[in-house]
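Q: Structure tokens for this one, please.
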Amino acid sequence: MISAVIHTFNEEKNLPRCLESLSFADEIIVIDMHSSDKTCEEAQKYKTKIFKHNYTGFVEPARNFGISKAEGDWILILDADEEIPRSLAVFLRKSAEINTSDYFRIPRKNIIFHKWMKHAGWWPDYQVRFFKRGMVSWNDKIHGIPLTKGKGEDIEENEDFSIIHHNYQSIGQYLDRMNRYTGVASKQLYEEGYRILKDDLFRKPLDEFVSRFFKRSGYLDGMHGLALSLLQSLSELIIYLKLWEIEKYKDEKITLENVESNFKEEFRIKQYWLNSAMLKMSKNLLQKTILKAKRKFYNK
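A: Here is the predicted structure, written as tokens:
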């Protein structure tokens, strides 16, 4: 028996598509965080069991609660803006019958601003979402890594066997979620004992941009890759600004020399990774030699 667990908060537009893709499941559990729209009315149109959960602003607590309400031997976790393609549904059903693994990591196809993002860390974006009862749980931290037991298996990196995630559809939606997620993340940092350093406002956004745009080849996704790398960088900045707010805007002297040092370091790092990316793309021997020399110069 397969139980699908979905958490919801004001998802009346996304939920029908999600539920229609779950016709192969034996049981569908909807954990609603007291939606103010017609989410529950939409859920009632399908064969679902609806339970209420306090609004937390992030999904992990609702997932654990949903698992506790499910009766299946196998659990499938899905967000309301996700769907399961038919080929993946058949695979999951067969996997539950064969019973050779305890949990599966499933690739996720992120559709962002109307484009399938294949770089910048958005693909294959493996997620632990299908597992035997008792083998997976989540801690109560935003975007926390699931706790697993037993034998795991990765499903092949193929869009036909991936969760389809209708992620950010507009800049406004991104900013709305960013405001919510950064508030939770900054509070967690504070509770874990982290205190803001004056260089965090330079280094944290820079590290995120370099990771997304250069290390994980966001530039190969064109304007989408650049825009999302910048937005993710902005999100990191907001997390640490909100941490500063939690610390009552503690005052710390910032000198122009400190600002200059950070700007120079930011320039050096970006130049190193820019030359690395250009070197990877170049097919001209002379150009590659020049780029290697430049990269070596900035690798200090």
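A few notes: Residues 256-281 form the longest helix (26 residues). The chain has a mean pLDDT of 96.
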